[in-house]
């Protein structure tokens, strides 16, 4: 999910609209523009456990919910009474009410912060917007301070987009260019799945002849993780607080 392209309404409902279709936020499912909302809601329920479940458990560095908070939000969404939830969780009803109060306060803080941010950056030059960093286990350092314009120019310089998937023409030498290139390459590998090394190679081989080097850089820059014996690979997701 690319948060930079989705509105609050998009996030709340679980899908967004493009010029030609209604698109699920969590997979490649697309629906005609005249599709009833309940049809997409059914897809979200069947494929992703519902929009709330998908949001609460979203693998994103922006998702800072603890395991306990995830469980509470899921329970609150069912409409369960405070007393019954207190009994289930072994706490007092007052504790449950305090948790609700805490969530409401955080929502108010987030609302004010968002309004303040939008007001402060209303005049921001679109050419200076920074590239959205993919899932990453560490806080990005200065190497990741890349504008969207810089990234677009770099991609056009290093990739041949007349092919599918785009073919990398040559390997960059500068670190920022390497990051931009890796950011584009990792988009070709599905998330929330595990792969064998041959399966990962099958994704990378059409992109660049030295696909083993690309795989090594993806691991070095934390775009990919693997088991110590190299039998399983998966896209990196940001760690959550428990």
Q: What report would you give on this structure?
A:
It contains ten helices and seven strands. The strands form three sheets. A three-stranded antiparallel beta sheet has the order 1-2-3. A two-stranded antiparallel sheet has the order 4-5. Helix 5 crosses helix 6 and helix 7 crosses helix 8. It is mainly alpha-helical. The relative contact order is 0.08. The radius of gyration is 21 Å and the shape is globular. The protein has three domains: 62 residues, no CATH class; 60 residues, no CATH class; 94 residues, Arc Repressor Mutant, subunit A. This is DUF2087 domain-containing protein. InterPro entries: DUF2087. It holds the Pfam family DUF2087. It comes from Levilactobacillus namurensis DSM 19117.
The total strand number stands at 7
The average pLDDT is 85
CATH 2nd-level architecture of the largest domain: Orthogonal Bundle
Number of helices: 10
The total tally of domains equals 3
**What letter string, H or E per element, gives the SSE order?**
HEEEHHHHHHEEHHHEE
Q: Which regions contain 5 or more consecutive residues with pLDDT less than 50?
A: 238-242
- Helical percent range? 40-55%
Largest sheet: 3 strands, antiparallel
The 3D shape can be described as globular
CATH class of the largest domain: Mainly Alpha
The main sheet orders its strands as 1-2-3
- Indicate the proportion of strand residues: 5-15%
Radius of gyration: 21 Å
Terminal-residue CA separation: 22 Å
